[in-house]
Amino acid sequence: MSFSQKNTPLLTQLSKLAFKQEAPFYAPGHKKGRGINSHFKALLGENVFKADLPELPELDNLFNPEGVIKEAQDLASHAFGAEHTWFLANGSTSGIIASILATCSEGDKIILPRNVHQSAIFGLILSGAEPIFINPEYDRDFDLFYNLSTTQIIKALDNNSRVKAVLLVSPTYHGICANVREIAYCLHNYNIPLIVDEAHGGHFHFHSDLPMSALEAEADVVIQSTHKVLGAMTQASMLHLQGSLVSSEKISRALQMVQSSSPNYLLLASLDSARQQMATEGESLLRNTLDLALIAREKLSKLDYLSVLNFEQKKDNFNNLDLTRLTINVSKLGLTGYEADEILNTKLNVTCELPSLKTLTFIISIGNNLDDINKLIEGLTKLEKYRKKVNQNDIFITNFPTPKLKITPRQAFYAETITLRQSQAINHISGETICPYPPGIPVIMAGELITQDAIASLQNIINHGGTITGASDSSLQTLKVVNS
């Protein structure tokens, strides 16, 4: 069946029903906004609540689509270059978990980078799969990871049996891309599917000056956070599938387990809308975005007290860089990224996506304009007057801890735990997964040995203004460990 990419079947039907004159006796309880708190209605307006509708017959069913959702998903699969596409109303987290559930069962093994998002750890807990973690190369200057290399993956395959899938994070939060095509080709020779967490790369397919998309590189399952870089609402994502190595039926069944049975149609319609926008205007929108990013990069590269993450030549573990993802090292100013973020946000009206100990990362997208870029350049230029005279070695970490996994995350999740003081917890198996957030990459994972380096890394983040999640005691004075 062929559809026009200009059509927005789900959005159109939702709009029609939102303004239908009727006596509604269905959920949600606010009945098209009539029962909404007046202060909330004043903030958002009436129309958003009129369109907050349930699974009415005209709106199709996300878990058995035969009407407008099916049409919208088919349009998305054509636009993004997939064979099948599922809309996700529970974010990319649900897509990553479902992908692991669809490929791995208890006792199976999956290869993945140690800097994987915590959602993959949830997938390991639910599936019972045994992780084979590979440590990507760590860049001390920028305090970030590169990507997995083909050589690392082949070595892991040769040393392990029962590997049922490989999960790759490409691009990383900082825009660093792996050689997905080479890795996919290698894995297909083993008859093993490649799952790509492409949460930050949903725009790649729509402009040739961006890195190759994971689907074009022949990955089997690709999860994209359409809301992160395109025009969907927060929490709205997509899962794409191609090839025969992963069952579409298993993907569908797994998604029913991890998504709400009452999905938000505003989110689903925003995916339909974002797809239509990119299919019809994507190239021009992204040309403008790239031009804005290049202006920022050129201007900021001239400031000798800042360093801009750039891509100079292809490496096995750093195959390309998304130029719309701007990472700035501020450590020459004697500031942490957290301090710089606070200054920019409160004094200079510039807000970044991801502060860390050494860097600030900014997402430049189709929603930005030249005024935003000028404010960014002005803000980072004015940052120099906040320079501090400190010994950088007293502030910034010099290596990333890589604790050893002793039991699987699933075993740790179900294990009995006890609480110990921080000093006593060293060399015990962690009963909790603790992440700086964002980006949501665990420093301590349930099932790993707690090390002094890991504690020091987390404590350093807390001391300099960062936020951690997953710890029962956010001060880290005590930790939960497996009672062995």
Automatic annotation (TrEMBL):
Residues 8-312 form the Orn/Lys/Arg decarboxylases family 1 pyridoxal-P attachment site domain. Pfam families: OKR_DC_1, OKR_DC_1_C. The lineage of its organism: Bacteria, Bacillati, Cyanobacteriota, Cyanophyceae, Oscillatoriophycideae. Keywords: Aminotransferase, Decarboxylase, Lyase, Pyridoxal phosphate, Transferase. Belongs to the Orn/Lys/Arg decarboxylase class-I family. Coiled coil: none annotated. Its cofactor is pyridoxal 5'-phosphate. This is Aminotransferase class I/II-fold pyridoxal phosphate-dependent enzyme. Residues 389-454 form the Orn/Lys/Arg decarboxylase C-terminal domain. GO terms for molecular function: carboxy-lyase activity; transaminase activity.
